[in-house]
Amino acid sequence: MIIEKQIEIIEKKSKFIGILVRAESEDEIKTFLQDLKKEHKKATHICWACRLKTPFYEKALDDGEPSGTAGRPILNVLQKKDLQNVAIFVIRYFGGIKLGAGGLVRIYSKVAGELVK
Predict the structure, then answer these.
(1) Is the N end or the C end of the chain the one with fewer CB atoms within 10 Å?
(2) Single pTM value for the model
(3) What range defines the domain where residue 105 resides?
């Protein structure tokens, strides 16, 4: 898979690496996720969301973050922009300061929003 865009944002000592990729299948996304897990072994979370056109498929994963605070906000950005055949992955390295549910929703939305600009 080709990385279309990659950004890094630091929020309260946590590092968030956002990656936007084009995707044609669920298998492609799963393979890319496995590659990210190998590359970022010390990451606390790798949250993601995707939208595929044919066959229609949407998925969001919080990867251990509180339910609905990571994958869902990423997916919401993809839906609002009506983007298809893309996936956004956000790799988090925890910096020691908890962000709270609202803070997590804001930062994951921000990373995804920056990627789709």
Answers:
(1) C
(2) 0.95
(3) 3-116
